[in-house]
Amino acid sequence: MIQDHSLGTNWAGNYAYRAAKLHRPSTIEQVQEIVANAPGVRVLGSRHSFNDVADSSELVTLEAMPADVVVDHEASTVSVNAALKYGELAEMLNAEGVALHNLASLPHISVAGAVATATHGSGDANGNLAAAVAGVELVTSAGEIFEVSRGEPDFEGVVVGLGALGAVTRVTLDVEPAYEVRQRVFEGLSWDALLENFDEITSRGYSVSVFTRWGETNDQVWVKSRVTDEAEETEADLFGAVAAAVDRHPILELDASPCTPQLGRPGLWSDRLAHFRMGFTPSSGEELQSEYLLPRRHAVEAIEAVRALADGIRPILQVSELRTVAADRLWMSTAYGEDAVGIHFTWKPEPGAVEAMLVHIEDALLPLGARPHWGKVFNADAAAIAPHYERRADFVGLVERLDPRGAFRNSWLEAHVLGEP
């Protein structure tokens, strides 16, 4: 068991961890010992959060523990070390001939971190990554192992746990037979076409993303479709948007090499569902991110509200992404109880200007039921967020029951989740 006192920053470089110790256990027994004795502790995943959700006086990384990937073909599940990254897991699943239902925009993130923050991916019929969870193993602040499976009491409160309930050490996910996906990009979609045909556009593929800089038109629409035995019906345009003739990066000025292949070339689910490829710097690499998930019924109204702020957004924006997520029943999920539309912002690394702009964005979107993505930059406090989570009080009770000494609480949780509404 190794202690590391050099923690550095998160992936984006906008947050420096304040923890005095970083523990690297190699066994579950060591995790139990560390957690039971630490006055304050959190688990550090792939460092992809853009805020201090994962920080504490002491941190634990599970990267030194065995991946221990166990595929149960009969149950259609896979059990994994919670620190495993989705890109690494995908390679192991492909060797077993199975797949996950979805992936986030980039495969560089850890399973437990993505699940704990309801990180999602897209698709009208696709729940976020947490929706695939069938079981969770965690170590409580008493050093005890707590396991819960789908259908059992507490399960729907534990999955999107925000790191507040314990150190998640293993996650069991649903799998299905491996499949192929192709993706095509369409350019120059007009706002009238998007707003008048929003449902038709987002249902055009298994997963659909609209990239925009809130200008006169939308830059791109990425349509990812499952490959079937039937021949692909190619289209020259999508409601007036023209099919791209070359591979594209979501940020038009950037080289498309880090992106997953397009132009209708079929490939494994793991090589198409994410926007970016493992082994490359995802997105632009120098950025901040924010995202708000709203009830899908407010999609057009929310998009129009953001368009009204475009003059202030564009100077500090790299690109925005609009996508959809299917409803789930996980208490603290940003898609709890209702299908959602996500409005994502990849900002230039200008924190002061971004935070000032978020005041206006949240003033426009929170009244429409917007839920900020837990792992990204936002201003809204617990009082503003609580009304959008009907099971929040149950979650607070679960936190108090599984972590009675408050070892996993931190200032971020108090400010945005656990504080008085």
Automatic annotation (TrEMBL):
Alphabetized Gene3D superfamilies for the sequence: 3.30.465.10, 3.30.70.2520, 3.30.70.2530, Uridine Diphospho-n-acetylenolpyruvylglucosamine Reductase, domain 2, Vanillyl-alcohol Oxidase, Chain A, domain 4
Domain FAD-binding PCMH-type: 15-178
Molecular function in Gene Ontology: D-arabinono-1,4-lactone oxidase activity; FAD binding; L-gulono-1,4-lactone dehydrogenase activity
Annotated SUPFAM superfamilies: FAD-binding/transporter-associated domain-like
Domain of life: Bacteria
InterPro entries: ALO_C (IPR007173), FAD-bd_PCMH (IPR016166), FAD-bd_PCMH-like_sf (IPR036318), FAD-bd_PCMH_sub1 (IPR016167), FAD-bd_PCMH_sub2 (IPR016169), FAD_lactone_oxidase-like (IPR010031), Oxid_FAD_bind_N (IPR006094), Vanillyl_alc_oxidase_C-sub2 (IPR016171)
GO cellular component: membrane
This protein's UniProt keywords: Oxidoreductase
One Pfam match: ALO
Name by which UniProt lists this protein: FAD-binding protein
Organism of this sequence: Rubrobacter marinus
